[in-house]
Specification:
The structure holds 2 protein chains of 2 kinds. Chain A is mainly alpha-helical. Chain A is about 40% helix and about 5% strand. Chain A has 2 helices and 2 strands; from the N terminus they run H-E-E-H. In chain A, helix 1 packs antiparallel against helix 2. Chain A is flat, with a radius of gyration of 20 Å. Chain A starts with 6 loop residues before the first helix and ends in a 5-residue tail after the last helix. In chain B, strand 1 and strand 2 form a beta hairpin. In chain B, helix 1 packs antiparallel against helix 2. Chain B is an alpha+beta fold. In chain B, about 45% of the residues lie in helices and about 20% in strands. Chain B contains 2 helices and 4 strands; from the N terminus they run αββββα. The chains are: A mainly alpha, B alpha+beta. At the A-B interface, helix 1 and helix 2 of A face helix 1, strand 1, strand 2 and helix 2 of B.
Chain lengths: ~140, ~140
């Protein structure tokens, strides 16, 4: 039995993974604040995984190369959930719709959520330890 | 070109690519400002032409980073000034002046600075998130 078998820990783990991925998507948006025609994207709101080992939680598949003549192909994005285009409130003349302020807000929001999840994890851990302690100590 | 230090976090890698792009953009702005008064060497010749950086999304670690892929010349008209004694004056006595507008460059510079700061705070946040994860094992 691992910690992932406890539903609370599995949920927290996927939540942390989701927030890490979201941070990556926001980093892409911020990096492209001055790229003409760029539309920012965001992840869909977090949903609980249906069951352990559901389709959403599978790692990306990479083909095995058995001959040097095989082409590796483009590796799939490492993001678990697919980012969707979500333009910010303004679009500039060059077609770029990244608003730095909104991206910063999204970023600190996901950072706060991340901290919440981490402290939740710690609390649950402490609770487990309390339960596992020998009585009377 | 591979980086000597590979950032562990993809968000950091993306933000780093943007930092580099903004640095290159800063270089172009500096060139424009430095040459705001550079005229031609020969009579009637063209002066310094303003350069414009072009940003394009590039793949960094499987994510979408950014890079300054090319620098193109600004095709707007040159200014001109009547200065018959100038070595670059044409037969009528006019000297062509660069199409650099210091005000525009100052605004561009401000923009580059803002974008640079935003990317730095992305790196900071990513580091803080990593740190809070590490705090789990500190106990």
């Amino acid at each position: 039995m691992t910690l992932d078998d406890i539903p609370l820990f599995a949920t927290l783990k996927s939540r942390l993974g989701y927030l890490g991925d979201r941070q990556q998507v926001i980093a892409q948006n911020v990096a492209n604040t001055d790229t003409p025609g760029f539309t920012p994207s965001d992840l869909k709101p977090f949903t609980l995984p249906d069951a352990p080992g559901a389709a959403g939680s599978l790692p990306p598949i990479t083909p095995t190369l058995t001959s040097p003549m095989h082409m590796a192909g483009t590796p799939a994005s490492r993001l678990k959930s697919k980012p969707v285009l979500s333009p910010d409130s303004e679009t500039t003349l060059d077609g770029n719709s990244v608003v730095l302020e909104e991206e910063m807000m999204r970023m600190s929001q996901s950072r706060m959520d991340y901290d919440t999840a981490v402290s939740f994890y710690q609390q649950a851990m402490t609770m487990l330890q309390t339960a596992a302690k020998r009585p009377g100590t | 070109m591979a980086d000597p230090v590979q950032p562990s976090n993809i968000a950091v890698a993306v933000a780093t690519s943007a930092l580099k792009a903004e640095q290159s953009r800063m270089r172009v702005i500096a060139e424009n400002l430095a040459n705001a008064d550079s005229t031609a060497q020969t009579p009637g010749g063209d002066p310094y032409r303003r350069q414009v950086p072009v940003f394009t999304p590039t793949t960094v670690d499987g994510a979408k980073g950014v890079a300054m892929t090319q620098v193109v010349a600004d095709q707007t008209q040159f200014g001109s000034e009547y200065a018959p004694g100038h070595p670059a004056a044409d037969p009528k006595g006019y000297v062509k002046l660069p199409n650099v507008n210091p005000m525009m460059e100052a605004l561009d510079m401000r923009n580059a600075q803002r974008a640079y700061q935003a990317n730095l705070s992305v790196i900071e946040t990513a580091a803080e998130m990593d740190n809070s994860t590490l705090s789990i094992i500190k106990k």
